[in-house]
Amino acid sequence: MAFSVASASYPSPRQDFCVAVNDTNAAVFVNGKFCKDPKLATPNDFSFSGLGVPGNTSNKLGSMVTPANVAQIPGLNTLGVSLAQVDYAPYGLNPPHIHP
Predict the structure, then answer these.
(1) The Cupin type-1 domain covers which part of the protein (predicted)?
(2) SS3 annotation, the chain
(3) Cα–Cα dist 70/80, whole Å
(4) What is the Cα–Cα distance from 17 to 44, expressed in whole angstroms?
(5) I want to staple 18 with a disulfide (CB 3.0 to 4.6 A). Which of 35, 51, 60, 81 is the partner?
(6) Which residues contact 8 (CB under 8 A, 6 or more apart)?
(7) pTM for this one?
(8) 63-89 confidence digits (pLDDT tens)
């Protein structure tokens, strides 16, 4: 009988979250962004109202991508999460592309 186990994980983060801010006076710099003082974080740092709103598909491709990443949701910084909403007109296209 053979038995094997594999496990992979990231090391424990140094903090629970790092809300990205453009304040260069912020004390902590993580993942290419300055971190807001956690005591100053608000629910708005973790939400984005742009998803669920139909995008304007009146363009050459007939599609519109609405990103939701750290630029729109500052609380996503350091979490490794981003998403997008893609809206299509009838026969709309999302051309081949890569995500480096």
Answers:
(1) 50-100
(2) CCCCCCCCCCCCCCCCCCCEECCCCCCCEECCEEECCHHHCCHHHHCCCCCCCCCCCCCCCCEEEEEECCCCCHHHCCCCCCEEEEEECCCCCCCCCCCC
(3) 9
(4) 14
(5) 35
(6) none
(7) 0.73
(8) 999 999 999 999 999 888 889 999 999
Is residue 100's pLDDT more than 80? no
Task: Judge whether 93 and 67 are in contact, CB under 8 Å.
Answer: no
Question: Which pLDDT value is given to residue 70?
Answer: 93
Give residue for tokens 């956690």.
Answer: 38
Q: Could you give the angle at the alpha carbon of 72 between the alpha carbons of 41 and 38, nearest 5°?
A: 15
